[in-house]
Write a structure and sequence with these properties.
The structure is a single chain. The protein has 171 residues and is an alpha/beta fold. It contains eight helices and five strands. The chain has helices at 12-15, 20-23, 27-41, 61-67, 82-91, 107-113, 133-146, 164-170; strands spanning 50-55, 73-79, 100-104, 119-125, 147-156. Strands 3-2-1-4-5 form a five-stranded parallel sheet. α7 (133-146) links the parallel β4 (119-125) and β5. α3 (27-41) packs parallel to α4 (61-67) and α6 packs parallel to α7. The protein is globular. The protein starts with 11 loop residues before the first helix and ends with a helix.
Length: 171
């Protein structure tokens, strides 16, 4: 799958991204679950700072929830869509650059540049389902390579089938 095919939010869908909340009325609860998974996983007494990657950060909402886990959290939020990065800049303005770095880049390309065992946590919400199986497998391998020992990967998503007919049948 080409990078271009993974860009689903570059048009009207990206501009109207907030409407997706209507399709997911429990969004805040889902976001809170991601935050709590990260918060509960670590012994905060022995941590100076916690490096988190938010893959497919979209409008920055997940990043904002992750930041609220603890003041020691810093987030690198990545997305391949310029429109989403611009939305995230607005939402996360107060945290840039102190606690948030926004990066517009393909997830796999970004992860391949990350040092092994250099990230404490990786989170992804409603992103991985957009990728075909081969690309998804590559990204997952890179996530686990990048995670420090004792790190955590939190994925809040539902994987779709690669074939539309299978996907629609199970949907």
């Amino acid at each position: 799958m080409s990078t271009e095919n993974r860009k689903r939010f570059r048009s009207e869908l990206g501009k109207q991204y907030e409407l997706l909340r209507l399709a997911c009325p429990h969004n805040d609860m889902l976001q809170s679950t991601v935050r709590e998974a990260i918060k509960d996983h670590f012994d905060w007494v022995n941590i100076n700072d916690l490096a988190v990657l938010d893959i497919g950060c979209g409008n920055g909402e997940t990043t904002l929830f992750i930041l609220s886990a603890h003041a020691k959290v810093t987030v690198t939020a990545i997305d391949n869509e310029q429109v989403m990065i611009e939305k995230a800049k607005t939402l996360l303005y107060d945290f840039i650059p102190k606690r948030v770095a926004l990066v517009q880049k393909d997830a796999l390309q970004f992860l391949q540049d990350v040092e092994s065992e250099s990230v404490d946590a990786v989170a992804s919400v409603f992103t991985i389902h957009n990728w075909d199986r081969a690309y998804r497998s590559q990204v997952l391998r890179e996530i686990f390579r990048a995670l420090k020992e004792g790190g955590i990967f939190v994925n809040a998503d539902k994987y779709a089938h690669d074939r539309d007919a299978e996907h629609n049948k199970h949907f």
